[in-house]
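Subgroup meeting minutes
Present: P.N., E.W., G.H.
Scribe: E.W.

1. P.N. recapped why we're keeping a running log of single-chain structure predictions: easier to compare across weeks, and new members can see raw inputs and outputs side by side.
2. G.H. added today's entry (419 aa).
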Amino acid sequence: MFWKMFMDNIGNVTSNHPSFCSVKNGYILPEFKDDWILQGGVCNNEKQFLQNSITKYNAGKDFLPVEYIEHLDNSPKIHETVIYGGYLFKHYGHFLIEGTTRLWFYILHNQNNRRIAFSVNDKNLPQFMKDFFRLLGITDDMMLLIDKPTQFDNIIIPEMSSFIGGNFYPKEFLLPFNIISTKVKSKKILKCYLSYKDYKSNIYGEDIFEKLFKDNGFLVVNPEKLTLEEQISLYKDCNFFAGCNGTCILNCLWSQAKNLKVLALMRVDTDLSCHRRFFNVKNADYKEAKIYINFLPSTQRFGPYLVGITEDFIDKICYFGLKLKTKLFLPTNNDVKMFLLNWFKIYERKENKQYFQETTTNANLDKYLQLRSQFLNDKYFVLFHMLLYFVIYKVSFGKYRSCFKKKYKKFKDYYAFLH
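Output recorded in log:
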């Protein structure tokens, strides 16, 4: 399974410095995206792929797309020396941790004002990316966006400062973030809760956490409503970040605060090994709190996610000295219903079934789908959810657990059927 291979090849943090090489008359090949695999990079004049130009661990697939090989001889040629900047991800999180990792060379070793050539699938860059390069001082005329195989007189290929499956060079990786952050005026915000509520994230029950953190003095931030510069102004002096695992929590990379604290709320049972290196390099006191209470198995990629207060979450907020200022521990009935509706909508799609079976252990998708009508039409579906929450997840709220176990015993038959 690809994701397991990904996690088994995290790589090492090193205090050395990344290297670089160059190739004459080489080709930049825009990445082909095949599921999570990216094929493409740089090859030499003899059509041999250069391994130091890869973007992701490829799980055994060829990096040189066969569609390119027979057409390379007819590729346009630009007569100049360029720096290979890698692939530009339009996804904000992947851009931060994978799309910026060759910029160290441009910043440190570009005395000759060479242009930087990026591999793209679409030359229309998202606004956050334009803002990033503007704040870093890379103007449009210094960038080449390559969306078809293109040959150059010479291509300089910097090693990635962070490569999942390879080494990690903290100083060079943080360089662009530190430079940009120093240029933005801080709003002196010390605690931020990064919310997915207004984003199409399929997280149901996040209202509970927004209110709890707001009552503990956190500013609730909806990143997608702000420009990159506005976001950085909030994060620059922030010393405590909290939010669901994923892209949002990675915004701690902009913080210049000492004694940084990060609490990642786990909306799904997943391995965050590839993210922990970024929290560690910020010397953050980093903790993960399980808040997922899905009674149907969900995947990290598709969701949906049902979340609520759990014992693990209570332990973690106590560790950080926060107060449990809430009487609401469970999502609303409507949240549960929307979770169910979206779960079946997502996993009844043929193209999603295979991914579900490959990434979700001990789960029989067909059995879950057979119960669609019971889940959605049974007037007790919310109580079924609560039963699983209190009994199956063994949340020690004493009298509630025994009450649900006794009164709604029939719903255990559903759980037995599924397993």
